[in-house]
């Protein structure tokens, strides 16, 4: 669990230390005071990513040259460790004061699942949001996936650079040099996504049934690019598509263009679902993440980050939500006002946040 959190020039926090953190924690404050920023800091320590932006430069306090996030962690076994991430002119990662060179060696000291009002966009929004969610979740459960993903996108960027130069014998040869890497990593990405989305689909279907109390057909349907689940077919398709890739100046197929759909009672929720159905599906998706993480082993510990979403849940859905989220090892909630007292939140540590400080 996180026992202490340190921030410097992170969002609206100039210099901040939060002690006395417990199993269940509540941040209370008006909008714009920095409650969600604290959840973002915890998530960042877990994944070296933000759940709100893809640009790390957006995280630093306006006018600063960089930011720092650190935490004291304790485990079920009783031992503690100090983790730190600093982004100034270059990235600096440390565990127990020892520099860590690779992100894959730093991430997942804790595993995080974020519940946000924007989760509905996983159902109704762009395919890039769904890919980003899938990739971050798979990386949390299977850390080796992050390295595969990084290798794929690096090779794609280098190949795209030659596509933009224009088609000639030299650029064709240079582009072809990266295609075996893309085929190898791309097939592995598709394989990871297929397995994980299948597992998520099964868990979400069960959760939808538990919450609604009715039998409903639910499926996460993975739509992959043709020929990207077999390395030989992948390489053959490069031969077929290379001219078009040069014309468009980017890779026109591959897992970077994949998508998945939420199918409910045989219909795509994105096109035919009500707002309530879409919210239910996105909530159950995140709850399924906790169940899968919990079943994957005892370490690392699971931290749930709940950003002001329980207020819109009806009583029965809220009960179902609490029944699953209690499996997390630590939970952080944000509220604009003190929540109604209930058994689940009784005994929670409460922190009032105002203008980037506790009050």
Question: Summary?
Answer:
This protein is of the alpha/beta class and 359 residues long. It is built from 10 helices and 15 strands.
Q: So how many helices? A: 10
SS elements, strand count: 15
Order of helices and strands: EEEHEEEEHEHHHHEHEEHHEHEEE
Q: Largest beta sheet, briefly? A: 6 strands, antiparallel
Determine the oligomeric state from the structure.
single chain
Our measurement of the CA-to-CA distance between the termini, rounded to an integer number of angstroms, reads 23 Å
As a whole number of angstroms, the C-alpha radius of gyration is: 22 Å
Low-confidence stretches: none
Strand fraction band? 15-25%
- Share in helix: 40-55%
